């Protein structure tokens, strides 16, 4: 069957595909399996690093390129790297500005697939405990040049992170800043957003923009939510709920399965 031939569905992970226990429900797994059996192309679009994305591939498969670090990295379904949208050479200036506003800010640096801690903070440790990984600490001198970096994750108390994001607005022409939760400020290159990366995946798969659908719940999903036909789980941030085309059930009740039921009606045999 090819009900969904030339249809692409891109889904965020945390708060969308995953429930609050960070698991994929049986209903979501079965719905995605059926969607792909029916010819659909499924893509994950996440802010997570590849190490903590691929751990879910025992539960689900993907048959389209998938997106990590908010669009900085795009991988083929077999795991080979297709695209690295790296940070620009102005990155040290952005880091300097961030530390002027918030000297104690936690700084996570991702060099392609690998995570490092440049400056520690309790929120940084909290983040990596949730993910179940233990990145090493490194100084700037021990890291490759910034044009090989994929993403910065700045962590700290929500009020101070909000102040930091206001300061970093001055860098908007070269960087994209987004947040999956109030304790984060996620920094990638200006062209490394989920929206840009989903467009890349659609082109690679030969899918026209009008047949691209996305699902996400937080501010770091806005670039794809505003660009394509978007579904927002009920638990989404207000900015996403206001921008999405349709609201579905929350992530505790298999939101992605509901999306696929809606697509089934949009693409009858």
Q: Which features does this protein show?
A:
9 helices; Rossmann fold; about 30% helix; Hypothetical Protein, Haloacid Dehalogenase-like Hydrolase, Chain: A, domain 2; 5-stranded antiparallel β-sheet; 2 domains; alpha/beta
What does this structure look like?
The protein is α/β, with parallel strands linked by helices and 269 residues long. It has two domains: 8-84 and 193-266, Rossmann fold (3-Layer(aba) Sandwich); 91-189, Hypothetical Protein, Haloacid Dehalogenase-like Hydrolase, Chain: A, domain 2 (2-Layer Sandwich). The protein is built from nine helices and 13 strands. It has a five-stranded parallel sheet with strand order 2-1-11-12-13, sandwiched between helices. A five-stranded antiparallel sheet has the order 7-6-8-10-9. Helix 1 runs parallel beside helix 9 and helix 3 (91-101) crosses helix 5 (158-168).
Estimate the helix proportion, in percent: 25-40%
Quote the CATH topology of the largest domain: Rossmann fold
Low-confidence stretches: none
Mean pLDDT over the residues: 95
Write the topology of this structure.
Blueprint (H helix, E strand, L loop, with lengths): L7 E4 L14 H12 L3 E4 L6 H4 L11 E3 L4 E3 L5 E4 L6 H11 L4 E6 L2 E6 L2 H10 L19 E5 L2 H11 L6 E4 L5 E6 L4 H12 L6 E4 L6 H4 L3 E5 L4 H6 L2 E3 L6 H12 L3
Parallel strand pairs: 1-2, 1-11, 11-12, 12-13
Antiparallel strand pairs: 3-4, 4-5, 6-7, 6-8, 8-10, 9-10
Helix pairs in contact: 1-9, 3-5
Outline of the structure:
The chain is built from nine helices and 13 strands. With 269 residues, it is an alpha/beta fold.
């Amino acid at each position: 069957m090819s009900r969904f031939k030339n249809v692409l569905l891109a889904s965020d992970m945390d708060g969308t595909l995953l429930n609050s226990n960070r698991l994929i429900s049986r209903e979501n797994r079965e719905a995605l399996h059926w969607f792909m059996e029916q010819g659909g192309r499924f893509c994950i679009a996440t802010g997570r690093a590849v190490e903590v994305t691929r751990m879910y591939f025992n539960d689900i498969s993907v048959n389209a390129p998938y997106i990590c670090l908010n669009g900085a990295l795009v991988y083929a379904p077999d795991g080979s790297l297709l695209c690295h949208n790296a940070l620009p050479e102005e990155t040290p200036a952005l880091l300097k500005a961030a530390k002027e506003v918030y000297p104690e800010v936690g700084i996570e640096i991702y060099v392609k697939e690998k995570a490092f801690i440049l400056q520690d903070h309790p929120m940084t440790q909290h983040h990596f405990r949730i993910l179940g990984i233990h990145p090493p600490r490194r100084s700037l001198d021990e890291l490759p040049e910034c044009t090989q970096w994929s993403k910065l994750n700045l962590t700290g108390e929500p009020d101070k992170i909000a102040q930091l994001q206001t300061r970093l607005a001055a860098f908007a022409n070269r960087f994209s800043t987004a947040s999956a939760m109030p304790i984060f400020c996620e920094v990638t290159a200006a062209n490394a957003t989920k929206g840009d990366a989903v467009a890349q995946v659609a082109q690679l798969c030969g899918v026209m923009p009008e047949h691209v659908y996305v699902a996400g719940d937080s501010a770091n999903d806005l670039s794809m939510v505003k660009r394509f036909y978007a579904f927002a789980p009920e638990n989404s941030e207000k900015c996403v709920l206001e921008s999405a085309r349709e609201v579905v059930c929350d992530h505790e009740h298999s939101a992605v399965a509901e999306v696929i039921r809606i697509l089934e009606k949009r693409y009858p045999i």
